[in-house]
User: What shape does this take?
Amino acid sequence: MAGPRQVLYRYFSPETNLLYVLFRDREGLANLEISGVRMKSAAPSIEAVLKASLREISPLVGACLDTCGGLGYSAIAMARALGVTRVHCFERDVNVVEAARHNPDSAALFEDRKIDLRLADVCEGIDAFPAGHFDRVFHDPPRLGLAGELYSGAFYGKLYRVLKPGGRLFHYTGSPGEKAGKRVRQGAASRLREAGFEAVRDCPEAQGLSAVRPPTRRES
Assistant: This one.
């Protein structure tokens, strides 16, 4: 059973009209709740889902993109891999970054020199990178109803452009409910394929989808 909820940080933003609560309700990594909506699934645990997610894009190598940094757990985990040279991490909400600064579990997000944390919208920031820049992409957007543009075919096309041929993508969708979750993943999978991705696969344990940009075909 979960222990008592320990609030680490609490802030109401008049700019976004949202309440940010950083808390810990069990052993393990802290979680962030934004006006009652948890950023990370609590089941089975943040650590277990993250481990399963990163396994889908292993081995972790080269330059990595973390599209929606949140508390920084995915960026931190990728930066720990010896083969990773750089992690570009985007987070557009200054209040989320401030919550991360109050979270002991997020310290490496600000201290690890491999991590380039950018307070910006990835929809715009991604355009600054050249084609084929990234070896791995970890895409963990807010829920579909909160950030529909990050589930769009247009944005998936941007992810395809910056990913190297043969590069791997993991797209976390979460599990908002069995029927709703299936619809979200089915729609996302279809748009990923339309953007050019191959080997698009539902990964229930990781609560998302994995995909690959096909390698460049040699001329016959």
